[in-house]
Specification:
Elements: E1 3-7, H1 12-23, E2 27-31, H2 37-43, E3 48-52, E4 72-77, H3 82-86, E5 93-96, H4 101-117, E6 123-126, E7 129-132, E8 137-140, E9 143-145, H5 149-160, E10 166-167, H6 168-176, H7 185-198, E11 206-209, E12 213-216
Helix pairs in contact: 5-6, 5-7
Length: 220
């Protein structure tokens, strides 16, 4: 899913924009602009935000994840606000008001395609499997997967090092810690449980390398 948040008053143009985006498969929400757009963007997990900026309104900053870049931002502004955009490197695109719906749609499509091609650094995508390391969440084909802490840490470590083979001893050290005194079978048990949760559709994610250990499949 690609969530788009439109922060604008509802009118004929914004309703048309929302409806056309929804028909194209985007998850689109239209709501009046608030005083804290970054919180709204985070709450709705928006990948792209369209903001209708009034003559006196501040152009918002949407850094919702600390040091990482927040959602892409498209601003609809009056011509007299163009000088402000020159000093902002966090506004990904803009249109002049009164905006043309077709032009704005084209700009949104291009940004969405770019965002899909380059997922955020805290998102690991492997086929239908998505690991959100910022939220410690895992989903498969859009459905959330309930993992234990160790299952999640094991999956994250393997997926972060996709294609590399790790022995059971190394996995114990990296995932459980040097002070853990459990045996190799601990890794095997957790891999088996993890597979039962994420490989239910027949797709193999964690491969066994005979006589060595495990790796996360490279080509997904």
């Amino acid at each position: 899913m690609f969530n788009i948040l439109i922060l604008a008053e509802e009118n004929d143009k914004t309703r048309e924009l929302k409806n056309r985006l929804s028909r194209e498969g985007y998850v689109c929400l239209l709501m009046p602009p608030g005083e804290e757009p970054e919180k709204l963007a985070a709450q709705h997990t928006a990948r792209l935000v369209v903001v209708d900026v009034g003559a006196e309104d501040d152009i918002p900053t949407l850094d919702t994840a600390g040091e990482s870049k927040g959602p892409m931002l498209v601003a609809a502004v009056f011509r007299q606000r163009l000088a402000e955009l020159g000093a902002r490197d966090d506004v990904d695109d803009f249109v002049l008001k009164p905006f043309d719906v077709d032009e704005l749609l084209t700009r949104i499509r291009k940004l969405a395609a770019r965002a899909k091609a380059t997922p955020p650094s805290d998102i690991i995508v492997a086929g239908d499997l998505i690991i959100d390391t910022a939220r410690c969440e895992v989903s498969l084909a859009g459905a959330p997967i309930d993992l234990t802490f160790r299952e999640y840490e094991l999956l994250k470590f393997l997926a972060t090092n996709r294609g590399r083979v790790f022995s059971r001893e190394v996995l114990l050290n990296k995932v459980w810690g040097y002070e853990y005194f459990g045996g190799d079978r601990t890794v095997d048990v957790h891999v088996r449980r993890l597979r039962s949760k994420i490989e239910e559709f027949g797709q193999i994610y964690v491969e066994t390398v005979r006589n060595i250990g495990y790796r996360f499949k490279r080509n997904l």
